[in-house]
Amino acid sequence: MRADPTYFNTVVLSLNNAMKNSNDLAAELSSGLRVGQLSDDPAAATQSLRLDGQISAIDTYVQTASSVSSRLQMMDSTLGEVVSQVTSAISLAVGAANGTLNGANLQTIAQQVAAIRDNVLALANTSYQGSYLFSGSKGDTAPFTLDTTSTPAVAAYNGDSNVQTIVTPGGQKIQTSLPGSTVFGSGSTSMLGVLNQLVADLTSGAPTAIISADSSALTNALGNLSTQRSFLNSSLSTVESTSTYAQTQEAQIKVQQGQMVSSDPAKVATDLKANQTQYQALLSVITTLQQDDLFRHLQ
Description:
With 299 residues, the protein is mostly helical. It has seven helices and six strands; from the N terminus they run H-H-H-E-E-E-E-E-E-H-H-H-H. It has two domains: 64 residues; 195 residues, CATH 1.20.1330.10. A hairpin with a 5-residue loop joins strand 5 and strand 6. The radius of gyration is 38 Å and the shape is rod-shaped.
């Protein structure tokens, strides 16, 4: 009696399914992933794609924060040098206002203050990676120019009042720049304006009261710069802390994603072994059926 064709076909179908399952389990064991494509688990695959988006956004922020931090550090370093230069100018002004110096002495101090003024101008026009630090959003424009054809010389601000910001993955907006007009001031009371006036007054041998007033105005300008520097330092601290927090979040998201799509190697290995055993058993059944049919045919 021949084997029931329906039964034989059912066994063959089971054999093919067992082979496919073995291949799938072997691939899962090799890759370590339970979900390799949408059809494996549509819900988990969709959630994994959403987490990929979050990871990508965090990576972008961390890279941006790194660049912004370097820029802010350059701004702080620059302003630190300005503080040093202006502090020296104030010291010179205080010495010039003591009433004991002659005209020649004042001329010498005027030259020293002029050199400091030029250094401060150069620092105010510092650029970083091809963009001026203190020109607002006009990064390709030198923020300050100096006209020495008049007395006192006149410093002009050529930037704008716009500020730059970055937004954290959580939506927090952080200001990452200050225009030069805010940091150095503008007009005759600006840091460069006061230095220009001090140079003119020293050169002309102005009374000590006027030089003393210049010294006080320069101290006020320095105080404003120090306040703005503190603001930028606060921004730097916030950028760095939010970047660190974002990286911690990213690590947690990756763990969550891994748990969602990763396989259990021990379980997969056990399932693969059981499936291979089933495959061998079905193969044996088919071989037996085929041999029986051949034997009966020969009879």
